[in-house]
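Technical appendix A lists one of the benchmark inputs used to test multi-chain prediction within the project. The record comprises two sequence entries:
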Amino acid sequence: MNAVIETKALKKHYVMSAQTVRALDGVDLKVKTGEFVSIMGASGSGKSTLMNVLGCLDEPTSGTYLLDGKDISSLSRDAYADIRNQRIGFVFQGYNLLSRTTAVENVELPLFYNHSVDPGDARKAAVEALERVGLGDRLDHVPNEMSGGQQQRVAIARALVNKPSLILADEPTGNLDSRTSLEIMALFQELNEQGITVVLVTHEPDIAEYTKRIVMMRDGLIVSDKQVWDRRAATADLANTRVAAGTVGVPPAPASGPAAVGGESRAVGRDVSEQLSAGGQA
Amino acid sequence: MNYLKRLLRVALRSLVRSRMRSLLTSLGVVIGVGAVIVMVGVGTGASADIEDQISSMGANMLMIRPATAESQGVSQGAGSRNTLTMDDVEYLRDEATLLTAVSPVVSTNAQAIGGDGNWSTSVSGVWPEYLDVREWEIASGEMFTEREEKTKSKVAVLGQTVVEELFGSDDPVGERVRINNTPFTVIGVLEEKGTSGRGQDEDDVIMVPASTALYRLAGQQGSGHYVSMIMASAVTLEQSEEAQAEVSSILRESHDLARGADDDFEVMTQAEIMETVSSVTDVLTLLLGAVAAVSLIVGGIGIMNIMLVSVTERTREIGIRMAVGAHGRDVLSQFLTESIVLSLTGGAIGTALAYLVAYLLNDFVGLTTVILPATVGIAFGFAACIGVFFGYYPARKAAMLNPIEALRFE
């Protein structure tokens, strides 16, 4: 398996008046195709900084970052913009949708900056992406008219519209209640089943339980890296809470028995060092 | 092309979203462009008016006057010397090849009595050709003939003002008029000419044959008969200057002036008269235009101000656009497009407004306002430049933003 993300001794230092803040202090991380990784840690541990660097929103101070095997640690602003546009889908905690702009126009936005896409195709792709996240009936709603969960779905559709192989999500459930969070996690699990590599940052352990691998960070360093033995299936949990609450509804994501099975079968539980050395040999 | 269309769509959408602000922002350009066009239009109208009046003086006219006399270094003013004689006029008529008509003007002031009243007016002793030079028509009756001129006939042609003062609405042709106690027969009435470029009533005049004026009114005898000035028509307007040179050389010869001696007369072409007047109105136009241009620049600063506020206010939007792959130049062109659209819209509204104001000035205020397409073009071009110039700084500021910081901006 080839690595989508590989960082070596990645550092990000901020110089603030007299002192230097070491947000990242030598991070070695390898994420392979098809993985579903959650990065956890207390606030200030550097997880969001790592996310920004991985998402090409921020440049590392030093170290190397290989995306799909290519070193991209020192590229121009425009080259970073193109990577953000075509190779990575980024989902933010605060959705970051354009206000007073309809869902479909928000999703079209990345295609607007992709000059190889025809405007007519852009609309079609945007509608497809919204249907994929279950918002086919909310195309012309503006963010104000949608719930937080729906807005985050629009944001995910926007991340999907350029058909990236990697989705990065920075606390995607941070602003959502627990049930909506489950819905979003079900969506991520479904996308992951379709072969998209997902890396998300969270500080909620129960959210991390839905991923396949948990990376813990502290003070700009990775302190533990574990596979999830007992991965939960968000769709199933969602169905349970609905029954418990006595509500009846159609689950937004299709039945995901394979998700649960696949997740458990892949939870092989190797140690961090084993993981890294295996990556090195590959 | 496609990119430009999309850019325009995005710009329009964000301008429409905050339409009140967009309207107020472009108001500065609306007023600026409108003011420039109207002000320059008023100036152009004024000079057009004056040029009209000057060309109504006559066709391809040349005006020959005695040179200015100087007495102990003090200039005595135009026409203060008597250097032009009837002989000069005849010599010009016979010798000049570039003139179609020549006429002397012997001016005196006289008291005219006739009909029911009396009136102090100016009497011009002229040749029949004078009407051709001045492009003046006879309203009723007829002009005196060369024969009447030669025989010093006591016949007069009256201007409209004199007719009104002496005869009211009656037809004066065939009536008698006493000019300085000499009885004259009225044989014609001139068409109304209006006010001259210098503000004189051209119709307050009585025309008599030049010889009659010299012998019976001015009281000059013999060959030393001086004329006030000579009026002539050049063959064409283009040949005015050549005609001017020809007149000069003929008169120098006639006056027997030594080589190197100063002319004792001056020849002015209509173009020169026009230049003198239009140099004044040009300054006026320039001044009005400059004042209006200042308001246009102030309007541009208004655009810059709003675009800067807009960049700050929309920092998050810029961050989002950059996060999904917008290049710096995409953001730059977006904001630049917005400010250009603002200033061009303002320019278009301003132009429309200017046409409306010009129409009102022309039809209801009576102030001639001429809007030249060039003025509109320049004002519009200026507005576009203002959009680029004052929009560039805020747009560049937006393009230089770091996506992470822009996204964090609250």
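Strands of chain A lie at 3-16, 19-32, 36-41, 62-67, 70-71, 88-91, 166-170, 197-201, 213-218, 221-227. Chain A touches chain B at residues 52, 57-58, 77-78, 81-82, 84-86, 90, 92, 96-98, 100, 109-110, 112-115, 119, 158, 162 (CB under 8 Å). Comparable benchmark entries are summarised in Table A2.
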